[in-house]
Specification:
The protein is of the alpha/beta class and 226 residues long. The chain binds 5-O-phosphono-beta-D-ribofuranosylamine. 5-O-phosphono-beta-D-ribofuranosylamine (GRF) binds next to helix 1, strand 5 and helix 6.
């Protein structure tokens, strides 16, 4: 059994849920290595024993827990096992990073406004799977990614941060996914930082962000001449 993680101070305690390669988890891990980052990753849980992202956790000495969903007869039983692991590690914020299981409303309601997800589209457009294909097929000129608070409805909940990228002529789902992923790795740590610093206030479906920051420039594609 994994030992409990020692309490190392006042940083927000994050539990990351993954199912695969874990590049967003890695981006968060890198962010937490900055001394002034206000959150720490105290455990990583995967529903798949082969998830590549588990290696990043092991290398970093972070408890890496496998809870195989195939070992449970119902979604609720699996979610209870997840919940137990998160509470054992005294997690305060659950961060979904490529976690490919739909969580039950019971689980989500046990973590009110304390579960974050990253989705590779500009929500509320393109909820669900195959977002890059669908963005290209719809002829969108701009795509992107969204960090949001998880609510029981799939890919819905208060939006914390979004990043937009151009969709270029000749893009394939893979080239677009790579361009968006780069931005995912920027906005996920930033969203966690905002929450950990207490700068996010949830008002129904709206997340209000208190942050002194320069006003971003609009992204226009195709860019106007001159
Ligand atoms: C990312 O594209 C994320 O937006 C989506 O699943 C993918 C996970 O990638 N939810 P990784 O495992 O973080 O590399």
């Amino acid at each position: 059994m994994m030992p409990d993680t020692p309490d190392t101070g006042s940083k927000l305690r994050i539990g990351v849920l993954i199912s695969g390669r874990g590049s967003n988890f890695k981006a968060l891990l890198d962010a937490t290595r900055q001394p002034d980052f206000p959150a720490e990753i105290v455990c990583v849980i995967s529903n798949k024993g082969q998830a590549g992202g588990l290696d990043y956790a092991r290398e970093a000495g972070i408890p890496a827990v496998v809870v195989p969903h195939t070992g449970f007869s119902t979604r609720e039983a699996f979610d209870i096992a997840l919940d137990e692991q998160l509470r054992r590690h005294k997690v305060e914020l659950v961060v979904l990073a490529g976690f490919m299981r739909v969580l039950s409303p019971e689980f989500i309601n046990r973590w009110p406004d304390r579960i974050l997800n990253i989705h590779p589209s500009l929500l509320p457009a393109f909820r669900g799977l195959h977002t890059h294909e669908r963005t290209i097929e719809a002829g969108c000129k701009i795509g992107g990614c969204t960090v949001h608070i998880v609510r029981p409805e799939l890919d819905e909940g208060p939006i914390i941060a979004q990043a937009a990228v151009p969709v270029l002529e000749g893009d394939t789902p893979e080239t677009l996914a790579a361009r968006i992923l780069e931005q995912e790795h920027r906005i996920y740590p930033e969203a966690v930082r905002l929450i950990a610093e207490g700068r996010v206030e949830i008002d129904g479906m709206i997340a209000r962000i208190r942050k002194a920051a320069p006003t971003p420039q609009p992204l226009v594609n195709p860019a106007p001449r001159g």
